[in-house]
């Protein structure tokens, strides 16, 4: 199933709860929440209190993307705040297998993210344990960047690896996705699409519905 995961990093923070409700009403299936610590990536975004306060605004999947060092320290906190899916970076985990296990023990969906230059071989052995792999199509930390072209081939390679192992795993793509290139990354194998500025710039409802039209066609 193809799903849209609008990234609230591009939202109007003065109207955050209201915009999350608008996404819900427009039909977006996920809410993508980027948590950044200023160490793993240069920026600092938001944490548990924001997620907790947004949880009553939507019953959609809260797709919490932890761009933080050693995220295993905070799995319980994000679970309690209302995350449904927690994605950690392979590059940020000293013990990736243990971190994935801790997410699953909380009854949540587990995702692993890879930065553009990180090979998919880095996660080959944990693939059977994860529900989703997130391919970063930009270097993480800032919104509004352009998609790095070679990451499309990376999605294709990941899809082949997943199929060869006989697994059913979602592939999410995040970074520089817009209405012009979303079909290309879907053709490569991605089925969960993160979009930030392409959703929140202009008419949020109209942009969401345009994405969903492409995803469902």
Report on the structure:
The protein is α/β, with parallel strands linked by helices and 217 residues long. 41% of the residues are buried. It is globular. The model has no long low-confidence stretch (mean pLDDT 96). The chain is built from eight helices and eight strands. It has an eight-stranded parallel β-sheet with strand order 1-8-7-6-5-4-3-2.
Keywords:
single chain; 217 residues; alpha/beta; eight-stranded parallel beta sheet; 8 helices; globular
Based on Cα principal axes, name the global outline.
Answer: globular
Biggest sheet strand order reads: 1-8-7-6-5-4-3-2
Mean pLDDT: 96
Q: What Rg, in angstroms, do the CA atoms define?
A: 16 Å
- Assess the beta-strand content as a share of residues: 15-25%
**Number of DSSP strand runs:** 8
Termini separation comes to 12 Å
Sheet having the most strands: 8 strands, parallel
Quickly count the helices. 8
Estimated structural class: alpha/beta
Helical proportion, percent range = 25-40%
Which residues sit in consecutive blocks of at least 5 with pLDDT less than 50? none
Order of helices and strands: EHEHEHEHEEHEHEHH
């Amino acid at each position: 199933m193809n799903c849209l995961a609008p990234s609230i990093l591009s939202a109007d923070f003065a109207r955050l709860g209201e915009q999350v409700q608008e996404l819900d009403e427009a039909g977006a299936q996920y809410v993508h929440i980027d948590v950044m610590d200023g160490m793993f990536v240069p920026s600092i975004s938001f944490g548990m209190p924001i997620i907790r306060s947004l949880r009553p605004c939507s019953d959609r999947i809260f797709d919490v993307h932890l761009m933080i060092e050693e995220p295993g320290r905070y799995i319980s906190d994000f679970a309690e705040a209302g995350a449904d899916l927690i994605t950690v970076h392979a590059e940020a985990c000293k013990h990736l297998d243990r971190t994935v296990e801790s997410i699953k023990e909380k009854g949540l969906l587990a995702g692993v993210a890879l930065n553009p230059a990180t090979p998919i071989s880095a996660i080959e052995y944990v693939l059977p344990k994860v529900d989703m792999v997130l391919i970063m199509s930009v270097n993480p930390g800032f919104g509004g960047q352009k998609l790095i072209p070679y990451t499309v081939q990376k999605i294709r390679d990941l899809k082949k690896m997943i199929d060869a192992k006989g697994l059913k795993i979602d592939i999410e793509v995040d970074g520089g996705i817009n209405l012009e290139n979303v079909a290309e990354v879907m053709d490569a194998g991605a089925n969960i699409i993160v979009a930030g500025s392409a959703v929140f710039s202009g008419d949020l409802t109209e942009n969401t519905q345009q994405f969903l039209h492409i995803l469902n066609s």
